[in-house]
Amino acid sequence: MLEIKNLHVDFEGMRGKTEALKNMNLSLNRGEILGIVGESGSGKSITALSILGLLEENAIISKGRILYNGDNLLELSKKNIQALRGKEIGMVFQEPMTALQPTMRIGKQLFNVIKQHRNLSSKETKEAVLHALRDVHIDNPELVAKKYPFELSGGMRQRIVIALAMAAPPNLLIADEPTTALDVTIQYEIINLIKELNEKRGTSVLLITHDLGVVANVCDRILVMYAGEVVESGNTKDVLSHPIHPYTKSLLNALPDSVEPHEPLQAIEGEPPNLLKRPKGCAFSERCHFVMDICKEEHPELKDGGSSHQASCWLEKVIV
Amino acid sequence: MIEISQLEKIYSTGKDCMIAVKTTNLTIIEGEILGIVGESGSGKSTLGKMIIGLERPSNGSITYKGHPLWNKKKYNRVEAGEIQTVFQDPQSSLDPRMSVKDIILEPLLALSKVERKEKGNRERLLQLIKRVGLKEEHLDRYPHEFSGGQRQRIAIARALITDPSFIVLDEPTSALDVSVQAQVLNLLKELQKERNLTYLFISHNMSVIRYMCQRVAVMFKGEIVEVGDTKEIFEHPEHPYTQKLLSSVLTIQNDTDTQSIILK
Ligand SMILES: Nc1ncnc2c1ncn2[C@@H]1O[C@H](COP(=O)(O)OP(=O)(O)OP(=O)(O)O)[C@@H](O)[C@H]1O
Ligand SMILES: Nc1ncnc2c1ncn2[C@@H]1O[C@H](COP(=O)(O)OP(=O)(O)O)[C@@H](O)[C@H]1O
Ligand code: SF4
Ligand SMILES: [Mg+2]
Ligand SMILES: [Mg+2]
């Protein structure tokens, strides 16, 4: 239902051109939860913002298409894409406060959104508000509906944001780091909630996070991003238990759980490349233990289509 | 090394009052890394701040090597620079208008002239920044020119410049990516061994706690509900909140024998 093809996003700045996304490809099937993982600056949010038509003014989409049920979103007018947001595509971001109106009661905010997207009478809409709150496991919806956002905890607020995002109801939910600002116990509840909405309503989900634990527990498939490129993709289980790309392997090995307390952690030395001047070959070559001559000269491509588990690495191609 | 007894912190805002830390007792043993976990708002940072002198206890006492740290309303620093701290967000905890060199040397201002000269000499400074993974040319730059991980290295150098015995680390890697977190945790652990430091290590990340701390205290609504050996608590959590906390952790469990991944 959602397909991104060869998307390139650049930022023009004083010091030159930042290549924030390079040849991004993605496909999300109906009813699926697709995860995008990667470290900060790897291009996860830029991907989400591109789909939603919310990129900042200085962003340039130099190439590519974003197909939603066959339509290229990049060719839609501002008005049409705005209509699509909220109705067809719901969104949840890291900081719940940005999605809420600080001076409007929770119930009223939900009322407005439901009224806008669904053909209901006022009485039915009021019912739907309470229903929406119950769906995100708010115990006493009547009471919470009367509250203002600042009167709620961070976890409650994020539930409200999810309720708002799901109100239309949309066919696709894009969640960018929805639990990063929350406590472990609340993260667990929110992640389960997203999973439940996906199962019950068949909503497709694009879940963006830097937390491998989160993707391991909810996503059907994942994409691993590094320096604005997808370096590995496949079924969650395949990617996490048989990673192909050295970056994915290093990332998993760097987790504190992967060693005993008396052993040193396996850090990835160095830093990601400067996106103002990417290396000519593989973006990971400066930090990779397996680097070969070809890696510095030629850029390894991710095979399009074909096998379900793939990585953009010369090593894999040499072995295969 | 540190004895906390019947410690309380009550914040009063207008007519409301908020008990941030409730009658807490805790012992920190010399040479250990003691972890503090708990949900947001459970009082972890408040506890740390009372030890380093940033918040005044409402009741109770804290002693450091037998000396009371608080005398009524006044904080008695033991020996200047003995107790240091590293905060979570390297972005906001470093003064953006100061050069890296000035940031690192600033804690020395609390020391005597003689000590300041001795500890602030160029050679020692260079050795220190090299040890934390920075370079000499970084000294004249400003915090915004550095990545999150590098800024945390600057904060660590700043804490070490006075040659402390005890450091409060409040979420030192929470703002960092896994790969950078691994670098910083390795550094912190090595330094602790090399210099026989004692850490109070505040974190909400259970995996980080398991890896770093010999003992851990679990805080819930201002109270320490469980304290003990990390391994013991992870394997046999007693308090319901600890149990909930541990069962909420989303991990990737790789079974090395079957190479299959177990999802919870
Ligand atoms: N200066 C203050 N005035 C009033 N209340 C405060 C103040 N500082 C902290 N509190 C309250 O005290 C409680 C404990 O706060 P504290 O910062 O110690 O929590 P924490 O466990 O460190 O949380 P986090 O994980 O979010 O950092 C919270 O309810 C907080 O709102
Ligand atoms: N408005 C902007 N101007 C210039 N560069 C930007 C802008 N927004 C993002 N970038 C750059 O694009 C890259 C990807 O950013 P982002 O998608 O936000 O990363 P993340 O994976 O952490 O969500 C980063 O290198 C970032 O610095
Ligand atoms: S292409 Fe080469 S440098 Fe890049 S990840 Fe593969 S082996 Fe490493
Ligand atoms: Mg982001
Ligand atoms: Mg805190």
What do you see in this structure?
The complex is a heterodimer of chains A (320) and B (264). Chain A contains twelve helices and eleven strands. In chain A, the strands form two sheets. In chain A, strands 6-7-8-3-9-10-11 form a seven-stranded mixed β-sheet, with helices on both faces. In chain A, strands 2-1-4-5 form a four-stranded antiparallel β-sheet, with helices on one face. In chain A, helix 6 packs parallel to helix 7. Chain B is an alpha/beta fold. Chain B is 33% helix and 29% strand. Chain B has a six-stranded mixed β-sheet, sandwiched between helices. A four-stranded antiparallel β-sheet of chain B has the order 2-1-4-5, with helices on one face. A two-stranded antiparallel sheet of chain B has the order 6-7. The C terminus of chain B is likely disordered. The interface between A and B is large, with 40 and 38 residues. Bound molecules: adenosine-5'-triphosphate, adenosine-5'-diphosphate, iron/sulfur cluster and magnesium ion (2 copies). The site of adenosine-5'-diphosphate has 15 residues of chain A, from strand 1, strand 2 and helix 1. Chain B: This is ATP-binding cassette domain-containing protein. Chain B: InterPro entries: AAA+_ATPase, ABC_transp_ATP-bind, ABC_transporter-like_ATP-bd, ABC_transporter-like_CS, Oligopep_ABC_C, P-loop_NTPase.
